[in-house]
Amino acid sequence: MVEYVRKVGDDCWHFCTNCSKYPQFSTYRRVSNPSSDDICRECLRNEKNNNCNKKY
User: Fold this and answer.
1) How far is the C-alpha of 2 from the C-alpha of 43, rounded, in Å?
2) CB atoms < 10 A from the CB of 12, how many?
3) Residue of higher predicted confidence among 12 and 56
4) DSSP of the chain, one letter per residue?
5) Which pLDDT tens digit goes with each residue over 7-52?
6) Residue 56: band (very low, low, confident or very high) from pLDDT cuts 50, 70, 90
7) Can you tell me the distance from the alpha carbon of 13 to that of 6, in angstroms, rounded to the nearest whole number?
8) Cα separations (Å) of 24 from 44, 48, 49, 50, 52?
9) Which of 1, 14, 39, 49 stands 20 to 30 A from 31 (CA)?
10) Considering the entire predicted model, what is its pTM?
């Protein structure tokens, strides 16, 4: 399962470790899918373009 992370105080979940906004510290982590409205648009774009480094 893919790991989703978000920074404390932020509502946006990331799943591509190469996203420019991927948080490195002070994070919440989950493996269940968040609401699609809460997923980072850059991560979605990276995945669509086959340019997403996922953490499992």
Assistant:
1) 12
2) 17
3) 12
4) ---EEEETT---BB-BTT-TT---SSEEEESSPPPGGGB-HHHHHHHHTT---B--
5) 999 999 999 999 999 999 999 999 999 999 999 999 999 999 999 9
6) confident
7) 5
8) 19, 23, 23, 22, 16
9) 49
10) 0.92
